[in-house]
Amino acid sequence: MYGYLFRRVLATVPVMLFVAFFVFMLLHMSPGDPAEIIAGNFATPEQVQEIRRALGLERPLHTQFLSWLHSVSQGDLGKSIYSGQDVTRLIAQRIEPTLILTLLTILIAITFAIPMGVLAAWKRNTWIDKTIMSLAVLGFSVPAFVLGYVLIYIGSVSLEIFPTQGYRSIFKDPGSALMHLALPALTLGAVFVALIARMTRATMLDVLSEDYIRTAFAKGLPTHKVLIRHGLKNAMVPIVTTIGLGIALLIGGVVVTESVFAIPGLGRLTVDAVLRKDYPVIQGMILLFSLIYVFLNLLIDLSYVLFDPRIKY
Prior knowledge:
mainly alpha, 2 domains, 313 residues
């Protein structure tokens, strides 16, 4: 296992190097002079030259990349052009609401999606199955920003239960923080629930057709034990893989959802950086999201052995 872990970690190095090179080239692939794009249409030549010096654009391209890569490897993502603060500091200030929102979304998705998928497979081709799959299709079809505004109208405007926007730190007021994140988590979780529920149903249908399932029923085991202990456990590998792939949907959905609910997280920071053409912040966000995605995929690969002992590293 340790050899497999070492090889998997080693394999992430070229992936992250490619991502780093792509992120670095974002600034140079933009049409026109990057310094003029960042400075805007009304900047003076002196301001443009100052930005060029600040970004090191007067140096050769390979020298810029190596210098930037060295800084990134030490945790220095540069300074925001708009605010002048360190990008690492900006990320640290905004990571709490995004992290809590992501964890809450995953918790909601797993809590509802897996039982829905198991039930749909067990009640195959009945009205229960059709209802659950119709809800899954609806979850895929409705855009996140539309669902967000609908939930705001229902939960905040009509029922006046949840706050409309904003965020309170969970370390200062846990109850208020969860109330602020409830609607955003439901908005993000809709697609995630639909994805996991459909995969759970498809995988469970294959497992329930196996001989050992029929044998378990023939022995008189209760239905819930057969479905969970013998069925779901053997269907978990594809489900866990789907959960990992769904993290990519969450990363994209966080950007939209935090903008709709005015949550000061990483998604909102990314949107603001794009609108302001704050390239150091954009580069830092892409690197961070890529690193998280690679790390989660590594954890998912390692978790397979917990669900299927036949898997050897």
